[in-house]
Design goal:
The structure holds 2 protein chains of 2 kinds. By secondary structure, chain A is an all-alpha fold. Helices cover about 75% and strands about 0% of the residues of chain A. Chain A folds into 2 domains: about 40 residues, no CATH class; about 220 residues, MetI-like fold (Orthogonal Bundle). Chain A contains 14 helices and 2 strands. Chain A has a two-stranded antiparallel sheet. In chain A, strand 1 and strand 2 form a beta hairpin. The radius of gyration of chain A is 25 Å and the shape is globular. Chain A starts with a helix and ends with a helix. Chain B has 2 domains: about 240 residues, 3-Layer(aba) Sandwich (Rossmann fold); about 120 residues, OB fold (Dihydrolipoamide Acetyltransferase, E2P) (Beta Barrel), CATH 2.40.50.100. Chain B is built from 8 helices and 20 strands. In chain B, the strands form 4 sheets. A 6-stranded mixed β-sheet of chain B has the order 6-7-8-3-9-10, with helices on both faces. Chain B has a 5-stranded antiparallel β-sheet with strand order 13-12-11-14-20, with no helix packed on it. A 5-stranded antiparallel β-sheet of chain B has the order 15-19-16-17-18, with no helix packed on it. In chain B, strand 1 and strand 2 form a beta hairpin. The longest helix of chain B has 18 residues. The two termini of chain B are about 30 Å apart. Classes of the chains: A mainly alpha, B alpha+beta.
Amino acid sequence: MAGGKTTFESWSARLMVRVPFLWLVVFFLIPFLIVIKISLSQTAIAMPPYVPVLDLAAGWAGIREFVAGLGLDNFAILLSDDIYALSYFKSLWVAAVSTAILLVIGYPIAYAMARAPRWLQSVLVMLVVLPFWTSFLIRVYAWINILQTDGLLNRALRAIGLIDAPVAWLASDTAIYIGIVYSYLPFMVLPLYATLEKQDETLLEAAADLGAPRWQAFWRVTAPLSLPGIAAGALLCFIPITGEFVIPDLLGGSDSLMIGQTLWTEFFSNKDWPVASAIAVVLLLALVVPIAIYQNLQMKNIEGGS
Amino acid sequence: MRRGFAPWADLGIRPLVRFEQVTRRFGAVAAVDGLSLDIYEGEFFALLGPSGCGKTTLLRMLAGFETPDKGRILLGDDDIGRVPPYRRPVNMMFQSYALFPHLTVAGNIAFGLKQDRLPRPEIEARVAEMLALVKLEGLAARKPHQLSGGQRQRVALARSLAKRPKVLLLDEPLAALDKKLRAETQFELMELQARLGTTFVIVTHDQEEAMTVAHRIAVMDHGRLAQVATPPELYEQPTSRWVAGFIGDVNLIEGAVVAADAGGLAIEGAGGRRFVAIGAADVGQKAWIALRPEKLRLSGTKPETAGENCVVGRVHDIAYLGDVSLYKVRLDDGATMTASLANASRRLDRAIGWDDTVWLTWTPDAGVVLTR
């Protein structure tokens, strides 16, 4: 029956749309609503360590009491102490600087990969992805080994006579940047490679034909055409770096707190779930803007269709 | 074609482009092999040949994307063999058009002008002029992906003409268009070339296209020139069997020259049949008479006229093409000859049908005598 088939198809099509939607509801929206709820609660010495807790058994009165117990006090706390603002600023700053460094390092790598012979390209992509085969944590620990006072880097620098005394790399912003740039490089290189690789090389011939030497052809053709890749790579790096916790915690100094560390401290050391949740909510709102820009660019890219 | 335009026949005129013994190898293969060629100012010149014959390599050497391994390429008096593409007064229209997808139509056309740092009003005026030239006024703000194939082709043409190049190179410029649009565009290209007077060099594998647009055609084979001639010369006076077969259909009669005098040649073919033809060859030399199908007369009765060449055979295939019909005639010795007859009347029945015995006749000057 034709009708039956159509029904089945539309039913399965609807299911296809609903699966990711459901996924987002269950694993993102509901947890996030819980976090928002906690951020509006008060700390308490209890389990869970906050009030109010919704008591549905009490009926309407319970709900009324629950709503009355919610408030914006935690957000006021975030405003009252400079440490939160400083942490946010520090995180955004580190993310911005790291993203810039990643772009400067990642672009030439992606460009060279895209211009390499076909057979070599798959090997190079493999090499870029290869570090993922080792645990992220272990790779960051390896950097502690490299950067410590009698570590590889200091020994190498001393051996070639660049320094006389070992440099304290660890517990510094430099170490944070090294760790972040190292860890996030594939996220910058891969989207850039993807856009550069599909660029038509005749366009460069056309540019040369019209009078543009290589360097200018790059700036007038290759660079503008790789903007979607730059945007994708930058946001893919910027957003997670802003919330980065492991790298600054292991490689950075205790005096330079990024927002991830501040959040961790509130949650685990101070056991202040509501404030930690408020920090998370504000962080998410701060990142919604770049995410929205990214989405917008993606849509334009799809509409552009080239 | 302008009447009397034949700079190649005038010894007083120097060529605009001159290839001197140019060789370009890719590995062991010589894509262009010791080739010499002159192209004159104002010419519409076609490079024609099967794929892999080296025509595109020749064009790319003129554009500067390939450098000759040996020989010189002169533009006017300058050796441009090693000049990079961005410093040549030559522009190319690419087969894929190679339009910049991030720029508008106007931006694409202005690309080379901006590169030359022309003043802004001049750029705008030139872009408007080019848009008018290719009849794309009003589409200046569109992006390439918003255009049809034919419109894109025009933008590519406008962009390559915007810098007023000394030579415009066209690499299979019409290959992506459908047949009807291609035929229209061929005439537009010719008109444009005549109006601008710019030297055009076109690469094509389509012999009809080359015959339509070009003043002269260089037929290439395996990196060498097979023949350089005007379209009528190429068709009526091919210099080799290969060219005769590449341009149009041809019947070849193999034989040996048995007599030669000022009036012509006597050629003896298989089975002792004798033919007379006009041409130059030595007695005893192997020769071929190349006959175009439309030069043959087909008759159902034995012709009376003497002094003409005549063969007899049976019709074994007829192809009705509308304007003409092709008759494939099998001779007694097994060879097949094709004759074409214009369908001048509207009659649906044929005077000559399958398996009829027919006589093919032709005058001594109908065929070309080829010795290679």
